Amino acid sequence: MAHEETVYDALDLAHGGEGQWAFGTGFDDPLAGVDTTVPDGVDPADLGAYCLMLGDDALVLAQRLTEWITAAPELEEEVALANIALDLLGQARLLLARAGAAGVLGRSRELAGPTIPDEDALACFRDPDEFRCTALVAAPNGDFGRTMVRLLVATTLRLAVLTRLRASRDPVLAALAAKGAHELTYHRDYAARWVLRLGDGTAESSRRAQAGVDDVWPLLADVFSPTDVERRLAAAGVAVDPSGTRAEVTDVLTTVLRRATLRVPPWPADEAPAGRHGRHGPELVDLLSRLQGLARQHPAATW
């Protein structure tokens, strides 16, 4: 009987029969063909730090969404959440690769070794205090209602930023934003439809949706507070000052909640962005232990 090639053979043969590292070695460079020159007048360290902020938000939220696989109320929702997570993971990969190219790898490169791609080193070999994500994305999922509220808030915020980043002077950020804005429009609409369905549904679904809103709203305390890095890069035409998205975000969220017959809680007072400076709660430690566990246990693993 003739040998029948499998998909695994094809993957192996695609790279000359060499074993591939389980977390990305051998895959195409995510920045191949993109101009990675840092714009004039921009500190590469600032650009790298900003890419970590956006990349970590996407990576951590993607990980949270994958926790619903096999647990969502319907198979269709598992597929939808998995697709949203994959979109966010794609954004994270580009952003972390850009951060690595800007030279912000730090200790993760030493731990990962020289053969691991920058984006994998940053995802799998940084400690929690080196992550720059917000508490909004790091918080546990809760029930499905809370997850939909958090997804609505997080995607509304991110869409407002990426829409503006399409005009960034950095070609990588501009290219990412052009594609990501389309993805996030779907993500936001998906979450909004579920919040409307739950909020204006049964008494129990409305109760759960309102509880989700009440739980998520305090996590908005620092999302509009810019870091010094964001201020400098916004002034240079590279980044977006999150305070400039406040009116759009609050209008969208208020409109959706009112149509869902849900109460809009008082907006929390602005606080300094703790997560952007690496200050996180134990929930991120737990999430990263699962995200990074295999890579750290077998840093040279091949398949």
Automatic annotation (TrEMBL):
One of its GO terms (cellular component) is cytosol. It comes from the Bacteria. GO terms for biological process: phenylacetate catabolic process. This is Ring-1,2-phenylacetyl-CoA epoxidase subunit PaaC.
